[in-house]
Design a protein that fits this description.
With about 500 residues, the chain is α+β, with helices and mostly antiparallel strands. The protein contains 14 helices and 15 strands. The strands form six sheets. It has a three-stranded antiparallel β-sheet. Strands 6-10-9 form a three-stranded antiparallel β-sheet, with helices on one face.
Amino acid sequence: MSRFNLIDEPWIPVRYQGGHLGELGIRDTLLRSKEITVIEDPSPLVVAALHRFLLAVLYRALAGPTDIDQAKELFRSGIPSEAIEAYLAKWRERFWLFDESYPFGQNPGTPPDKIEPWTKLTAEHNATSNKVLFDHTDTRAPGAHEPSECARWLLSTMTFSISGGRGYYPSPSANAMMCIPIGGTFCETLLFNLVPYANPAVMKDDSALWERKPPALPLDQPRRTASGYADLYSWPSRMLYLEQLPSGLVSSVRFVPGSGFDNPNRTPDPFVPYRLDKVLGNLPLQFREDRGPWRDFDSLLPDNSGLAPLTVQHALRMARHGVTKLPEAVLVLGLRYEPPRGNVELWRMERFQLPGAMSGDRDIRAEIRALLAEAESFQKALWTACRSFARDLLSRGEREPAKDDIRRVVAQMPVIACYWSELESRFHDLIGEYGTERDSEDIRWRWLKSVRGALKGAWEQHRRAVAMGDAWAIRALVKAETYVERALMELDAEISRLEPQEEGA
C-alpha cells in the first residue's frame, strides 16, 4: 500500500515570515513560498539538497525558464499556481515515499541483503563503514526515525554522496561549495536560483528522477551525463530502498551504488564557484579545514571570467535588467571529504551579505580580490616571523633544525589563526561598506587599518605568551619581530597615504 505522499505530507522544514517554524509538503512549500522566509534545518546538507530538489520540481513544472525575459516575468508575477498544481497532479503517484513500484527517489529492486542502518543516509551520524567524531549512535541498534526525516536525508545523501570505492561514485558536486542567493521571501530565493536553460533543446530533453522508471539492477550504464538541470538536481548517486516498520518508522535502508556522473563538456554546476587551474582548467572551489570561505569571497562574485556560481550571476543579471531587488545574502554550504578515504572532514553553512554596489557597473569582484590579496600578503610576513621564531627556538644557536620540525612548531602557534579570526568579523563589516556611493580608496583605507590591527594584535598575543620564557625564546622573539615591524611600517605608510583629508586642509 502506498504511504506518505511528499506532495501533501509535512516534511520540508520552513521558517515563516512571522518567525515561527513549521513543516510543509511540496505543494504548500511552493504555493505559499511568499509566506516563507527560508528553509531551515540543522544540517547544511539537507538545506542545500532541498533547494536543489524544489528547483528541479519548478524546472519540470514550468518547462523553463529558457531566457532572462521569462525569468524576469516569473519574478514579477510569482510562481504560477496552476502550473504547479497541474504538474503535481500528473506525477502524484511518483511522490509516495513508500510504494511497491515507484517509491520516491528509490529503487525497489535494491537487493534485500544489502541492508544498512538509517544512519547511512546522513553524513552527521555513524555508519557501518564511516565513523563521525562526537556521534555516539550505535549502528547495531540505531533506533528508528520518522518518514519526514528520512525523506530529507534521502535527498541529502543523493546530493552529497562521496566516493567510497567498490563502484560507489560521488554525487555530481559532492566536494564543492554550493552558493544559494537568498531573497526576502523563499519565493524570491527560488526564482533567484532558477537559472534559465542556455539551450531550449536541453530543457525539452531534461527529466527528473521521479519521472523515470527505476532502472534494473545492476546498472547497464554505470556512468552517464546529465540531461539538464532537473536531472542534475535529482541525481541518483545511490540506489536505495527504505525499510518501513509496522509502526511507520524507518530503521534500515537497502543501499547499493547508483549512477556515476560524467561531465565530458565540463558543464558547470549552477550552484558552484570555480577556480582556474593552469593545468586542469576550471575546478570547483572546495571548503578547506584551515581556511574560512570568506577568504575566497571574491570567487562568489561575477566578472568576465564566468567562474562565479551561475545562481549568483543570474540573480545579479536580473537586478541589472529590470528586477529592482538584489538578493539579501548568499548561503555558502556543503561538505569536504578527502578522496580516496571517503571520510567526511567537515560540513559547513555560512551566510554572506552581498555588496549593494553589485547592481551597478563597478568591478566589485576585482576590488575585493585585491583587498583579500593584501591580507594574504601581510599574513606571509607574519608566517615568516613565526618561522624565524620556531627555527631559532629549536636551534638554540647550535644547529639548523629540520624543516619538518620547524613546520610543526609553527603549526602549533596560534598566531596565524588569531590573525585570520580577527579579520573575519571585520571583513563582514567591510562588505556592508560597498554601497553604490562608497569610494573604493576609503574602503581600502579602512581595510588596511583592520589588517594592521589584526597583524599587531596577533603578534602581541604571541609576545605576551613568550615574555616569561627562557633567554633563548626571548632572543628568538626579538629577532623574529623585525619581520612584523617591517610589515607594520609598510602598512603605516600606505594608510597615511590613503587617509581622507579634511576639507580645507
